[in-house]
Amino acid sequence: MMEILQLSQDLADGLLAKEGAYVPSVPIVLGYSVNEFYKKSGIKAPEIMRDGKKIAQAQLFIAKKLGIKFLISCLDLNVIGEAYGTELSYPIDSVPMLEKGITDIEKLENLEVLDPYKEGRMPINLEAANICSKKFDEEKIFAFGGSEGPFTAAGAVMGAENLMRNIIRNPELVHKVIDICTDTIIEYYKALIEQGLPNIFGITEPTASVSCISPEHFKEFVVPYIKKIVRKVNIPAWLLHVCGESEEIVDQIVKLPRLFIFSCDRVDLKKIKEAIGKKFIITLGNVPTQLLMRGTPKEVELEAKHCIEQAARDGKYILSSGCDIGVGTPVENIQALINAPKKYGKYPID
Question: Does residue 215 have a cis bond before it (omega within 30 degrees)?
């Protein structure tokens, strides 16, 4: 699997807990990269988000500034929703935010699968993915392709509150919207493959955590559609990110086919590792973003140490933030997260 994914040797050694290797540390820097690139270049965020070259430049800028070897070609979770016509606001210094979803039932019932090369910002992100894939080839900076997951995309199309209400009032409509979003996401992933990205993609489902829906609703409205994506998109490995509480659904998550990385937030990492058991599923997380923004470097370092102690003893762990690092987070705190494995994460870990 490691060879198929073309992971760097130091990253592979860390994941396999080889003696002398270090726990990998990769913060999630999506909106943060846009903000930092804006402050450095003066290019406003709306211009960055509408230009694939500038998206790639923002990611390259933050990767070099922080000394990390990862690029992510999709920086926000409203790409699918916007392509279907939802209203976004574009702050001057960060990624766009959802303002209004589609509430007209007739429109929702008549959604069609979209062409990723023509609709919304999908073509822009494909351009960014193509540039990032070249940097992977040239400089061995690992490039992730990704998208919002089907449930989160449906929330962007309908509006999250409207989605939640209709899970109870009109579940048939919700299934219909999620299914159409799933088919569009599948086409989008296939287009990402054509850009030459490595063989692991991310599915981001912040709206699908137990903080938002029940485990029963996760089983009904999330699992079948992720399985459909994995079945239709021919790559060997997937990353799933779930913001918020996920301990009650981890038993469902670890059964998903071809899951390679589970990116989690606000969980007991020890319990997550116990649920994974002997399966080769990597856990990624979960230093709180609030601590990163408001804490001290020492507090971040100690929390990182705690995460390493909980999750890294047998490898299969990447130290990271619980979610996308917030705009305004002190760079010293991010560096404390990145550097913590040099102090606490050398294998074998006692």
Answer: no
- Residues 221/257, Cβ–Cβ less than 8 Å: no
171-188 b/e (C-beta count within 10 Å ≥ 16 → b): eebbbbbbbbbbbbbbbb
* 49 and 96 Cβ atoms separated by less than 8 Å: yes
Instruction: Tell me the pLDDT tens digit for each residue of 198-248.
Output: 889 999 999 999 999 999 999 999 999 999 999 999 999 999 999 989 999
pTM score of the predicted model: 0.95
Q: Are 315 and 281 in contact (CB under 8 A)?
A: no
Measure the CA angle with vertex 78, ends 77 and 84; round to 5°: 145
Q: Answer yes or no: are the C-beta atoms of 264 and 296 closer than 8 Å.
A: no
The total of other beta-carbon atoms located within 10 Å of residue 168's CB is 9
Determine the Cα–Cα distance for residues 253 and 263; give it in Å rounded to an integer. 11
Q: Given 3.40.50.1260, 3.90.190.20, 3.40.50.620, 3.20.20.210, which CATH number is that of 2-344?
A: 3.20.20.210
Decide: 35 and 324 in contact? Cβ < 8 Å: no
- Give how far Cα 127 sits from Cα of 123, 152, 188, 229, 233, Å: 6, 23, 12, 22, 20
Residues 239-274 as b/e (b if ≥16 CB within 10 A, e otherwise) read: bbbbbbebbebbeebeebeebbbbbbbbbebeebbe
Are residues 82 and 120 in contact, defined by beta-carbon separation less than 8 angstroms? yes
Task: Domain ranges for the chain, please list them.
Answer: 2-344
